Amino acid sequence: MTLLDHVEFAVRDAEVSRRFYEQALAPLGMTRIITVGPERTRGGGTRHGFGRDGYPRLWVQDNEQAGAGTHVAFAATERTVVDAFHDAALAAGGVDNGAPGVRAHYHDHYYAAYVLDPDGVNVEVVCQAVPA
User: Fold this and answer.
1) What sequence ranges are listed for the domain VOC (predicted)?
2) Looking at domain 7-127, which of 3.10.180.10, 2.40.50.140, 3.30.160.60, 3.40.50.300 is its CATH number?
3) pLDDT tens digits for 12-27?
């Protein structure tokens, strides 16, 4: 199952966001894969790429306008991963934007949690598998 190909968005402070995502995404098995320094970026900011299996699928960068309303959703195969993400993201300083639970308005098996990161980006982890 693919988490996603990649998402990239601007943040106020790449180091604050790096620390947040390293901790919040650990339950998904995601780590920081690469950091690209300001000397190698188009906007002169620092970029951090997070993913697993050596491929960065989430990029955050500073030195650009942090975007309001940005949303990213990661896929999980088990509801316990959704719960673990929510706990880890809150412990990392995230703000609850929807506790783990079924979102029946999407469908009966849409189990998701939402957290706002340090820049107000709405980060979701969802499990759409039918419970055993």
Assistant:
1) 3-128
2) 3.10.180.10
3) 999 999 999 999 999 9
